[in-house]
Amino acid sequence: MIAENVKKALQEIAGGNPFGEKITLVAATKTRTPEEIGEAVAAGITDVGENKVQEFTAKFDKFEGANRHFIGHLQTNKVKYLIKKTYLIQSLDRFELADELQKRAEKADWTADCLLEVNIGSELSKSGFSPEEAEAACKKLAAYPNIRLKGLMAMLPLSDDTALLNTLCRKMRALFEKLRDKDGRFAVLSMGMSGDWRLCVENGSNMIRLGTSLFGPRRLLSENSEGGN
Predict the structure, then answer these.
(1) Whole-prediction pTM value?
(2) Of the CATH numbers 3.20.20.10, 3.30.70.270, 3.40.50.720, 3.20.20.150, which one belongs to the domain with range 2-6+20-215?
């Protein structure tokens, strides 16, 4: 089932987004076993994302052949476990985290590629910079020598209001293009999960994070987290 789901998703995004950009599919692997992840990678997945540092480290050596993303909320005291292990940290959501990441990365003589997390729906339950703060945040973070911003990440609100979701997606795309014009390293707009990824792609997302669409219903955990589903 996993292999079939992966191949179906990859076929669906093969044409890219309306802006002519390739779409990267990140498999969101929260609660998934290394065997399940290995099956997805064998079917064509090139990037995987974990929400929890404990799961990230526990699975790190258990499979090969994929770029490792961290896509969940990152506590500052857990940063040390991700140094030199992440392809992309998608959830840079506050300066306190950036300070700790800079300190740890500099000590390790390593540069952390990151996405600035934007709270596009202005939701109290989600972290991230507001759309209005994003440009100033990127300018400030450009001064961190061991952090390299590669783009933006966002999660849409859970809503049946398609017009609202389209508006928020277009707002994210416009923000992405504005910041990309100022920084040539900007290339990633990570937006879209299992329930809304098609809408996000139609509005210009070039990276999606799918979990249940690939692996089926998620196993229950005692702790909730955000990032991909």
Answers:
(1) 0.93
(2) 3.20.20.10
